[in-house]
From TrEMBL:
Species of origin: Enterococcus caccae ATCC BAA-1240
Protein's name in the database: Methylated-DNA--protein-cysteine methyltransferase
Catalytic activity: a 4-O-methyl-thymidine in DNA + L-cysteinyl-[protein] = a thymidine in DNA + S-methyl-L-cysteinyl-[protein]; a 6-O-methyl-2'-deoxyguanosine in DNA + L-cysteinyl-[protein] = S-methyl-L-cysteinyl-[protein] + a 2'-deoxyguanosine in DNA
Source domain of life: Bacteria
Any GO BP annotation: DNA alkylation repair
First-listed, main subcellular location of the protein, grouped into a coarse class: cytoplasm
Cellular localization per UniProt: Cytoplasm
Length: 152
């Protein structure tokens, strides 16, 4: 399912258990069902400033155990707050895995809803984000943080 958002379009996919994908590029195959419809509604509310948490069920089939642990830690970052890559590494008891945290973020199949945009450099600067180019990705990350009233 294609959803037009303030910075362009995103594509949603789901299986019979929940949302599987939020993508910044068109998906080869995707289906519309109750979970993509719910995600579209919740994302629309989020961008309108009317939603601070998502309730759509997720169905994640990808990722290593490490990546899944990172994604769970991302999900614990409250709306309107940020954490550093180091803080995420410490939260999953892997304090030396700061670079691996960045790699796990880049593999997050459900960005925005699993808020990898809330992870910033330890110096408070924006670093990496999924997108067609690094510059486009950082612009999306900055926009998402702006939606949440985070000053960067």
């Amino acid at each position: 399912m294609k959803l037009n958002v303030p910075f362009g379009s995103i594509w949603l996919d789901a299986d019979d258990k929940g949302l599987t994908t939020v993508s910044f590029s068109e998906l080869a195959q995707h289906q519309t069902n109750q979970y993509t419809e719910q995600a579209a509604q919740e994302l629309t509310e989020y961008f309108a400033g009317k939603r601070i948490c998502f309730t759509v069920p997720l169905s994640v089939h990808s990722g290593t155990e490490f990546q899944r642990n990172v994604w769970k830690a991302l999900d614990q970052i409250p709306y309107g707050e940020t954490r550093s890559y180091l803080e995420i590494a410490q939260a999953i008891d892997s304090p030396k895995a700061v670079r691996a945290i960045g790699q796990a973020n880049s593999k997050n199949p459900i960005p925005i809803i699993v808020p990898c945009h809330r992870v910033i450099g330890k110096n408070g600067k924006l670093t990496g984000y999924s997108g067609s180019t690094e510059q486009a990705g950082l612009a999306i990350k900055k926009f998402l943080l702006h939606v949440e009233n985070v000053s960067i």
